[in-house]
Amino acid sequence: MMQHHLRRCSATAFTMIRCLCHFPTSISVSPRLEWKCPSPRLFSTNEMSQQLPANLVGVMEQRMKLIEQRSVYLQGQINQPDASPEEYSRANKELHKLEGTMNMIKELRSKQEEIDGLKSLVTNSVEEKDLREMAAQELLEALEEEKQLQHKLFRSLLPKDEADERDCILEVRAGTGGEEASLFAMDIFKMYERYSQKNGWKFDAINIMESALKGYKEASGTISGPGAYGKLKFESGIHRVQRVPVTEKSGRVHTSAVSVAILPQADEVDVQLHNEDLRIDTYRSGGSGGQSVNTTDSAVRITHVPTGTVVAIQDERSQHQNKAKALKVLRARLYEIERHRLHMDRSKLRSEQIGSGDRSERIRTYNFPQGRVTDHRVGITHHSIEDVMEGESLDIFIDALLLREEMDAIASFAS
């Protein structure tokens, strides 16, 4: 619940996040709490110029000194005539990564020197009154600019997920609930397609396995656009639906579940696939489970033997195209497994993220009779389910989850 996460983070972190982040619109947070938030926007200069709390400024100053020391050391490594090509390349690469932060640090240091000079003028009784008044006005402006630079540098120093700017792969699977789960899996898949289009991202279906009622047993697609993974990564988990199925004669509300996984796309540099590690089988697209039923062995199943990861694609008529799609999905899954292995403290394993598909495990509930959608991780309920399913109001939950992530990052920074 949101209250739990607010308690976990310091009051400092919450104050800072209100200055630095976007808030979603018109949110109802459980029956006990109401949020009246402005529309998503960039905050004004006055709002952004609020003073950073002293403890965060102190921590940031320590980080700045460490970065400056590291930069000097790397410059020395590069300028050493006896440095090996590997040492030179490694130092140059790290120095390049620090370049943006170092530029901000230099800009802040220069502004602070300017402030010291103006303070000296203001307090110097020997100077003329007009000059002191002019210096006092310039000092106020310089102090505001210093705050702006501190905010900018602070944001750059917060922990980041390097995969946030990547494209991603969406995987949706029907869980508990039979045909109704398959129909809802189709609704969820199309919801993300509409949301992608709303954000100007490119959405391409990779593979769809249909049920008897033309729902989706499984479906996957690629979402390509700036920051796609960073926006959607918290959509992974169990999505629960409560509604009257089309197959229900007595009008009873049923509960079904669908699992969603969002994986960052990986390229050949990130994940190298060796032929000896792959088992590739071809077969004919089958019955109602495939969109491209044909009489040739165009369907492809690739097994990554070391991990046991299996990807099957039968959506295209060409075996070559199905193989290319399968390799793309396989790289994404293996890349995610490795990311989670390296970042166990920040993520859960993909198998935990997806869960078993049982209706008792859920991150979000879509209640059609009551027209509401509730995200159980942040305790937010939105009372227009049609807007959510059309991809229009999904940002209400996404922004709140990103807000929680940034609060955790600030709390981690402060500690």
From TrEMBL:
Residues 284-300 form the Prokaryotic-type class I peptide chain release factors domain. One of its GO terms (molecular function) is translation release factor activity, codon specific. Pfam families: PCRF, RF-1. GO terms for cellular component: cytoplasm. SUPFAM superfamilies: Release factor. InterPro entries: PCRF, Pep_chain_release_fac_I, Pep_chain_release_fac_I_sf, Prokaryotic/Mito_RF, RF-1. PANTHER family: LD18447P. Gene3D superfamilies: 3.30.160.20, 3.30.70.1660, 6.10.140.1950. Belongs to the prokaryotic/mitochondrial release factor family. Residues 88-152 form a coiled coil. Keywords: Coiled coil, Methylation, Protein biosynthesis. This is Prokaryotic-type class I peptide chain release factors domain-containing protein. NCBIfam families: prfA, PRK00591.1. It comes from the Eukaryota.
